């Protein structure tokens, strides 16, 4: 692919001292141009929500256990109809070609080699068929296979174009649609306006039928509003999707009990508790803080996943203890790409996997099914730690 990011070249032996997400982000930031770094890392307006997505995990403490045999510990779980290595998958994140020339192809191969699933953005820089082929072992340099993919969609003014995206996703083997439902309008991201952000030359959006030349005529904000349908609604649009495809329909962007109930009422297959990585409405709750409300409303009637702010294996553990069946990460995948392409994404996933397994072992959990609210304490307003019930 022409355009996009230069290929990063890690210092020899450097990977051995990349031990945590902060190390990966630091190296990614050093490799990215300022405009790209601002685009990937920033949230909307005053960036309160993006900060709280991560800090929310610090309200909890783990309850470690002793003298429990964890020699046969398994971190595996199921997601989108397949067993995955651990309960973490890659969120739909656009413009991955701005982080590394191989973009979504590298991410797909990394997911295959690490045994997890991936969601593909409508703003991906490669065709969906190429992305899925990269992960199923059919493409050049393809991964070890087995990835189940979801296709992220917005409701669009042009339903023929939207249907063409759905058909391409079906033909590429995607198992689900992730309908991003939190974006009737785009959040205000000050850095994009200050930088007059435009997609770098050479990067296209094949799913949307947009070439690089077409994209660069508009700002990112104007381009989004040109196709997005701000009249989207539950009754009309879920019915239209059901009539159009047999793929699962998941709603991404649910933050309340009311919307959880509506997702169930309209027959959706799952929800993802998400605030768009803090890039939409600043001042909404951290996703972890909204998770319990949605889990309690779901009452086991619908799968509840979560994204936003996960940076450590213990974060995965806390989210699962509060009721999420799986968590998804976006920016960490971008940082892995910018650090070292496919190998960087695999390094990021390995860091989270090993940290999560260690957390399970030290909390005495031999399987994901044993992780529950009783594994946590929460700091009260009075400064006293109390077991979560």
Automatic annotation (TrEMBL):
Key words of the record: Flavoprotein, FMN, Oxidoreductase
TM region positions: none
Span of domain FMN hydroxy acid dehydrogenase: 13-381
Annotated positions binding glyoxylate: 154, 189, 276, 279
One example GO MF annotation: FMN binding
GO cellular component, one term: cytoplasm
Pfam families in the record: FMN_dh
Active site per UniProt: 276 (proton acceptor)
Cofactor(s) needed: FMN
Superkingdom of source: Eukaryota
Binding-site list for FMN: 92-94, 121, 152, 180, 252, 274, 307-311, 330-331
Family: Belongs to the FMN-dependent alpha-hydroxy acid dehydrogenase family.
Protein name: Oxidase FUB9
Origin species: Vermiconidia calcicola
Highest classification ranks of the organism: Eukaryota, Fungi, Dikarya, Ascomycota, Pezizomycotina
């Amino acid at each position: 692919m022409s355009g996009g990011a230069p290929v990063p070249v890690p210092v020899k032996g450097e990977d051995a001292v990349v031990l945590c997400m902060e190390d990966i982000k630091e190296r990614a930031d050093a490799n990215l141009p300022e405009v790209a770094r601002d685009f990937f890392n920033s949230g909307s307006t005053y960036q309160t929500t993006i900060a709280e997505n991560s800090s929310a995990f610090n309200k909890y403490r783990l309850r470690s256990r002793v003298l429990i045999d964890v020699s046969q510990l398994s971190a595996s779980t199921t997601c989108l109809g397949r067993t995955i290595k651990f309960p973490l998958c890659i969120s739909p994140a656009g413009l991955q070609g701005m982080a590394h020339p191989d973009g979504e192809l590298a991410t797909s191969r990394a997911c295959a080699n690490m045994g997890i699933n991936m969601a593909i953005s409508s703003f991906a820089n490669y065709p969906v068929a190429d992305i899925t082929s990269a992960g199923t072992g059919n493409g050049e340099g393809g991964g070890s296979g087995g990835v189940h993919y979801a296709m992220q969609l917005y409701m669009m003014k042009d339903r023929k174009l939207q249907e063409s995206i759905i058909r391409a996703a079906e033909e590429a083997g995607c198992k689900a649609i992730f309908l991003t439902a939190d974006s009737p309008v785009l959040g205000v991201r000050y850095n994009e306006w200050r930088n007059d952000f435009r997609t770098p030359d050479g990067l296209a959006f094949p799913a949307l039928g947009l070439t690089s030349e077409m994209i660069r005529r508009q700002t990112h904000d104007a381009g989004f509003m040109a196709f997005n349908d701000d009249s989207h609604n539950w009754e009309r649009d879920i019915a239209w999707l059901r009539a159009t495809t047999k793929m699962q329909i998941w709603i991404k962007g649910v933050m309340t009990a009311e919307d959880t109930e509506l997702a169930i009422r309209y027959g959706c297959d799952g929800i993802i508790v998400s605030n768009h990585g803090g890039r939409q409405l600043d001042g909404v709750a951290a996703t972890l803080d909204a998770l319990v409300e949605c889990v309690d409303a779901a009452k086991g009637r619908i799968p509840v996943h979560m994204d936003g702010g996960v940076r450590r294996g213990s974060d995965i553990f806390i989210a699962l203890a509060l009721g999420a069946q799986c968590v998804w990460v976006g920016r960490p995948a971008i940082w892995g790409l910018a650090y070292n392409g496919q190998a960087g994404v695999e390094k990021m996933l390995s860091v989270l996997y090993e940290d999560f397994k260690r957390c399970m072992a030290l909390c005495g959990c031999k399987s994901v099914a044993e992780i529950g609210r009783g594994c946590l304490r929460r700091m009260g307003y009075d400064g006293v730690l109390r077991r979560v019930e």
